Amino acid sequence: MRGRGVEFGALHFALDVPLQVEVRYADLQPVEELQRSYPHITGIRKPDVITDLESMSGIDDESEDFVIANHVMEHVEDPFRALKSMNRVLRPNGIAFIALPDKRFTFDKDRKITSLDHLIRDHEQGPDWSLAGHYDEWCRCVDGLTGDAHAAKVTAMLAQRANIHFHVWDYPAMMEMFAYAARLPDLRLEILLSMLNTIEVVWLLRKAP
Fold first, then answer.
1. pTM
2. Per the CB 3.0–4.6 Å rule, which of 118, 157, 185, 204 could disulfide with 135?
3. In sequence order, what are the residues at sequence separation of 6 or more whose Cβ sits closer than 8 angstroms to the Cβ of residue 101?
4. Which CATH topology does 4-101+168-207 take?
5. pLDDT tens digits, residue range 69-94?
6. H or E segment to which residue 120 belongs
7. Any residues with CB less than 8 A from the CB of 88 and at least 6 apart, and which?
8. Residues near 77 by beta carbon (within 8 Å), at least 6 away in sequence
9. Please, are residues 24 and 60 in contact by the beta-carbon 8 Å criterion?
């Protein structure tokens, strides 16, 4: 990491970076709302920018030397839109530092791996078509609900458009996604490194010169 960049969703646990690096912090909500959403977490960092990873609205084109997203992209409804936004805001040779949980080692272990075809359809058609299915699976496989309790929870989550792990991957599925993204003509992100790190996989992507 060098220069100036932005980290998404750091809350109280920002990535350690070199002292000479300048980092702005971005999140979906102001700090007061984040504190209400996560009452069990102390020391939540005040975001410098209120925006989302998919649009990165308010962040200028080719303005950042790096983007950090640790355990954020699984919460994104359209991961390819997020990758294209990273591509937009990064300068040539800029770095995307992404950590994703490997479902085999988390509460997502009983959920079905999100296929590449599913991700492509979410991007091309918009993610509304798959929303109910994600909530249905979450309530069954993570919450362990059945019957009326399951149906009521799914209905409530749809009404709130609840934030969950919409997509789940293991290491090979992540590689398939990033390799496909690297081949897209309007996306100039190449894979520099991937590394299994306990329950997560760390990815370094670089924007082409």
1. 0.94
2. 157
3. 71, 74, 108, 165, 168, 199, 200
4. Rossmann fold (3.40.50)
5. 999 999 999 999 999 999 999 999 99
6. helix 116-125
7. 56, 61, 62
8. 54, 122, 127, 131, 166
9. no
